[in-house]
Amino acid sequence: MLAVDSIKSADELNLKPESTLQELPVWTVYLELDHPGKELSRIFEQNPLIPGVILTREKQCIGMISRRIFFEQMSRPYGLGLFAGRPVEYLYNFLSPEISILSEETSIVDATQIALGRSPKLVYEPIVIIDEYSQYGIIDFHQLLLAYSQIHLLTASRLKKEKERVRVAKADFRDLQQNYTRLLQNEKMIALGQLVAGIAHEINNPINFIYGNITYASDYVQDLLFILESYQQQKPHQEVVKEAKKRGIDIEFMMEDLPKILSSMKVGATRISEIVLSLRNFSRLDQADLKFVDIHEGIENTLIILKHSLKGRPDRPEIKVIKEYGKLPLVECYAGQLNQVFMNIIANAIDALSEAYQLSKCGHHQIKSYLESDLTIRIHSEARDDQVIIKIADNGIGIPENIQKRLFDPFFTTKPVGKGTGLGLSISHQIVVEKHCGDIYCISHRYQGSEFIIKIPIEAVKKELE
Predict the structure, then answer these.
(1) Tell me, what's the pLDDT at 2?
(2) Taking a C-beta distance cutoff of 8 angstroms, is the pair 104, 22 a contact?
(3) Averaged pLDDT score across all residues of the chain
C-alpha cells in the first residue's frame, strides 16, 4: 500500500479562474484487491481525512471505493462479518461502485459541473484523476467545491473591477461575465444536488423497509391460499392443520405476524407519502403568486427535507430542534420563496453546529463544552402588531462582529469547507426585504451562538401588489 496525501488544503492554494485539477490536493492511496477487507477499514480509521482508496491488481488500477460507500456497507447487518476477513475484491465485486475519472488537466470549473451532473447517490463521491504518466489519484469532493468557491469569489471580484474599466476592456469583461453566469448556475446545481440527495436518502429508508417485508408477506399469502384450497376440497380441519405442518406452516404464528407486517408496510408507505407531500408544499409550485399561508407549515416542511442533515453521524451527534411556536395568523407572502429563506438559514445553522463540534473534539479550549452539551437549533415564532417574527438560533461558535456586517453581501461566506459560494444569505435578504418589505438581521456573540431574526408583514404591502 502506498499512501501520499497533499500537504496543503485547497483553501491555501493560489488558484486562478483557469486552474485545473492538477493544482488541487490529491490522495494516492493504493490497496491490492487480494488484501483482507479489515485492512481497508484500518486505512480509513487511521486516516480520517482520506476520501477513498484506489484498488489495484498487480499494481494496475481496477477501481476505487470511497469512505462513504465502505462504511455504509459495513454498517449494514452482517456487513462487517461478511467482508472483514475476505479479500477486498469480494466487497468490490459486490458493490460494483461507479467512479468518475477525469484528466488532471480538466479545469476546476468544468470538473465541478461534471461532478454535480452525476446521479444523486454519487453527488458527494470523490473524483478520480489520471495524470500524463497514467498514475491515479483521488480528489475529495468538498476540496473541489472549496476550490470552485474560491474561483467564484475571484471571478466576482475581477468582474467588479472590469465593470469600472469597461470602456478599455470590453472583451475581457464579456469573458468574465460568461464565467460568472456559469458559476452562478453551478451554485443552483449545488443546492439542488444537496436537496435531491437528502430526499433520496429519506425515501430510500421506507422503500427498503417495504421491500424487505414483501417477501414474507408473499410467503404468507401463498400459505393462506394453500389452506383455503384445502378447505375448498372439504377436508377436515385436523387434516388441513396436519398438512400445513408438513409444509412448515405455523398457522398461529402466521395469524399473529401477517397483520404486523401489513401494518409495518403501511407505515413505510405513509412515510413516503409525507415526504413527497412535504417536498411539494416546500416548493409551492402551484402558489407562485401572493397567497395567505401557514408559516409553521413551511418551517415543518423544511425540517422534513433537512431531516437527514439533522441526524447523528459518525463525526457528530444528532442536532435537536426546539420549537417555540406562537399563535400566528395566515401570512400573505410568496410561500415558495419564503421556504427557501428558512432552508438557507437552518442549513447554515447545521453547518455551524457541525463546525463547533469538530473544533471541540480538536481540543479548542473555549468551546470544549460542546462535547458535554446538546447541539440545538431553536425556532421561535410570534405575532406582534402587523408582523410575524421568526427567530432561528443555534448554540454554535457564533460569528465575529466584523463578519456580521458582511453576512448578506453576495459571494461572502464563512464556511471553511467550500459548501457554498456565499449566495444563500444574500438571496434570503433579497426575498425578505425586497419581495416582502420585511427585515432580516443577525444577532451573534463569539462562542455564544447565532440568532437570525426574520420579520414579515402579515398582509403584503400595497406597493407589492401594484
Answers:
(1) 40
(2) yes
(3) 79
